[in-house]
Amino acid sequence: MDYENLNNETLNDDDEIVLIDYYDRIHQQMIHGLPVTKKVARFMENNKKKTRRKQNDYDYYTRPLEKFDEEDPDKMQYFIDENSDIEKNLELAEREKLEELDKEHKTTIIENAMIALTPEQQEVVIMAYYKKMSYSEIAKELGIKKPSVYERMHNAVKNIRKFVENGQN
User: Fold this and answer.
1) N or C: which end of the chain has fewer CB within 10 A?
2) Are 160 and 117 a contacting pair, CB within 8 Å?
3) In tens digits, what is the pLDDT along the chain, a chain of 169 residues?
4) Residue 133: which domain range?
5) Region of residue 33 (phi > 0: left; psi between -120 and 50: alpha; otherwise: beta)
């Protein structure tokens, strides 16, 4: 279509052709001097503004809390959950720390008691406790029957208990 030869008098104001710059998102390239009507150009400009506003809103609501803290520390008071029980959360955190310490303590006891075990028992304990293998997997890897794994583990636990009771840890 020849845009230069269009008779502007036969067109109303919205149908007048204007040249715009347009970014083609599909082909990811800028198109300069794209001929469109004024009506289309206005629509695209308004649509661009709406999209920009939506993106700004999205950016605002998805910012990390550190950004709010940097801007204005007084705003952080709005992010405190009034329904949360601070004492309950602290108690839960303390309980988790105690459980972690208990787990570390048990791990240390087992590591110290390993000297009281036979090499076969040590192997089974390492596979079960550290590698988190099932008894079936241990039996398959060692080439022994599952009841033998049970027996070795039972004897290992018994020896660890004796070791701890004697206070040799």
Assistant:
1) N
2) yes
3) 444 444 444 456 778 888 888 777 788 888 888 898 988 888 888 877 777 777 766 666 666 655 555 555 555 555 555 556 677 777 888 888 889 888 888 888 778 888 888 999 999 988 998 899 999 999 999 999 999 999 999 999 898 888 888 875 4
4) 86-165
5) left
